Amino acid sequence: MPEKDNGMKKILQKIVLLQMLLALSFASYADWPIGKGRSSVIGAYNYFYSSKYFDSKGKLATFGQGDQFQSHFFGLTMLHGISRRLDLSVNLPFIIQDLVSGGIAKTNSGLGDISVGLAYHFPSENFQKHFTIKANMIVPAYENTKTPFIGYASKGIQGAMNYSFSPVKQSFCVIEGSYTHFLDTQDGPIQYRGAITFGKSLNKYSLVTFNFAHLDSKSSNTGFNINPSATKNFYSGTLTATYGRKISRTITPYIQTFYTLYGSNVGLGMGASFFFIVKIP
């Protein structure tokens, strides 16, 4: 197989990971506790497309003529308040991927990385500010026996913390940092992510949010290879805008767009999402 084709496939595998991380970030709005005995369900659809990439020096380049990558992500996240401060979360993703490389089209689909986690909140006296710590376990529900690969096919652990507050009336801001370590191979990767989200209520029913996130993935394996373990060293910055409108006391649908602003060894991704949050009861 030509070296150029191998390299492009490695970049596309990194695109897959970024797309999954975007989809998993749907719930990262104002991180207030859910409430003891209360639950929320988040259903999501995400479309991701890329035909360009940032090379190892951060310069934008185009895939070969006609080459492209697109994916469809369907996610279901369940949140439950174990106590007034402790929440449980479970995320179940299903992914469909289409890759055109060197004029050859390939498709793969299946369950992605299942995530189970806990979040503990430390509210201020007036409950207008919260400091939250999180711990998640990542378990792949697939094996990389077919391309395009769904993910790293590796178990992982994740720790995160964030600070939520209201900078102005009818608004919120969340500053978050996270650490993720994929465990099944010596070269990880280990990933660091920093993000800031600002949300503002337009009226009683409507909300807009803007999010900027920087992801830095570190690994001793920096080369391109047909093995997905060789596609672990990259960074990127992504901007996301979201609009939500409450249609009832318990249901709020959202639409979202995102764009990769910069990066290294990673695809320039763009796309849109639709998701809704249902509160129970």
Amino- and carboxy-terminal Cα gap: 55 Å
What fold name goes in the CATH topology slot? Lipocalin
Average of per-residue pLDDT values: 86
Number of strands: 14
Order of helices and strands: HEEEEEEEEEEEEEE
Instruction: Spell out the CATH superfamily.
Output: Autotransporter beta-domain
Approximate helicity band: under 10%
CATH architecture: Beta Barrel
Tell me the number of structural domains.
1
Beta percentage is: over 45%
What does this structure look like?
The protein has 281 residues and is mostly beta strands. It has a single domain, classed as Autotransporter beta-domain (Lipocalin, Beta Barrel), CATH 2.40.128.130. It has one helix spanning 3-24, and strands at 39-54, 60-62, 68-81, 86-101, 104-111, 113-123, 130-140, 156-165, 171-182, 190-201, 206-218, 234-245, 251-264, 266-280. It has a twelve-stranded antiparallel barrel with strand order 1-3-4-6-7-8-9-10-11-12-13-14. It starts with a helix and ends with a strand.
Quick gist of this model?
The chain has 281 residues and is mainly beta. The chain is 8% helix and 59% strand.
Write the layout of secondary structure elements.
Blueprint: H1 3-24, E1 39-54, E2 60-62, E3 68-81, E4 86-101, E5 104-111, E6 113-123, E7 130-140, E8 156-165, E9 171-182, E10 190-201, E11 206-218, E12 234-245, E13 251-264, E14 266-280
Antiparallel strand pairs: 1-2, 1-3, 1-14, 3-4, 4-5, 4-6, 6-7, 7-8, 8-9, 9-10, 10-11, 11-12, 12-13, 13-14
Fill in the keyword field for this structure.
mainly beta, single chain, 1 helix, twelve-stranded antiparallel barrel, 281 residues, Lipocalin
